[in-house]
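Possible regression after last week's pipeline update?

I re-ran a chain I had predicted before the update to compare outputs. Posting the input and the new output here so someone can diff against the archived version. Not blocking, just want to make sure nothing changed silently.
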Amino acid sequence: MYLTHLILVIKYNKQLKNNINGYVLTAFLASFLFLIGCGQKRKDWNNPVKIYDTLCSCKNKDGRTIDIALQKMLRDNNIPAGNTDQINTWMNAHPDQFIQFIQTDFMADSVYMQEFYAARDTLVAHGSTMATKGVFEELFSVKVKYPGCVAAMHLLYQ
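New output (post-update):
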């Protein structure tokens, strides 16, 4: 949307080629549109999708995120892990095994924990909060995208 506005301003400026006020107006409008665009991105840091995309992208020493490693572990043990429901079913039926998996493959992994702390610090630096009131759709999409990571957050934030 902002790019469209900027293109219109530039086209308008070409019509005012010899008018210095046109250049000043163009510069002002381009700056204003840039500031508005950057201001809206700041709000994204409080969106649950942005928060969990940041936290759940952390990788362990093997280069795997929690969800990728969980799927691999389940498949290696011939446990269905093709979709979120199958993963959630296993986690609910085997909470002790899931906790053990997180503790050994992620909490004990210094590479993962460094990435996790860096991601958490980045969120804090941008004023991000974990306020979830009124964002059901975003939370649902996060839970579907990152079932293992979302379930592990309470362990990682201890």
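Follow-up from reviewer: compared with the archived run. The chain has a mean pLDDT of 82. Marking as no regression found.
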